[in-house]
């Protein structure tokens, strides 16, 4: 099982290079736009695109998934609720020599068509109300609501309108959310294929509020475990197709 650790502390407007499978992607970092995390990078390494496919990246952030798809020859659309995120995705696409069409708005941002592939790395963690987050990380970038999966469940409900019979929807499931509820929602609407499972070192906001998260673990809501005196969570990648 691969292990991924994150370091979100980056100098804003620094350009960082990310090696994702056979591709190296240069991404400028800007204040207020989520930079790729260990969670997001693991997801990127375990989704697949083919040349000529139409792809939409929902919640594009700084654009890593959109650019990865474009580098593989896909025709890519990227959306984000934040205008500074879509602007940065556009700039980063140009930096990497690819074309990505961007739209600002929630989820599919008013697009009215189907796509061959949908990818969505949405906020998906239960964040303690008093948690202090890592530098440059805004709560809205990772907090998925009371159960940690509010936006992911909304995506599961919306996505079929943008899928055809052979479309693929890729999602990461983070076990610092009510991932079992997410899976139940997914199985109700889709055929589900497991792609991969990785592990992530628990972030400081978890270990700083460990009793709260151990209570959620005891209730069966999250998965959190200790090994070699460190706390870990899992990230699963699933592929969904219409029934």
TrEMBL record:
Keywords: Methyltransferase, S-adenosyl-L-methionine, Transferase. CDD domains: AdoMet_MTases. Gene3D superfamilies: Vaccinia Virus protein VP39. One of its GO terms (cellular component) is eRF1 methyltransferase complex. The keyword Transcription does not apply. One of its GO terms (biological process) is methylation. GO terms for molecular function: protein methyltransferase activity; S-adenosylmethionine-dependent methyltransferase activity. Coiled coil: none annotated. It comes from the Bacteria. InterPro entries: Euk-Arch_PrmC-MTase, SAM-dependent_MTases_sf. This is Methyltransferase small domain-containing protein. It comes from Pseudidiomarina insulisalsae.
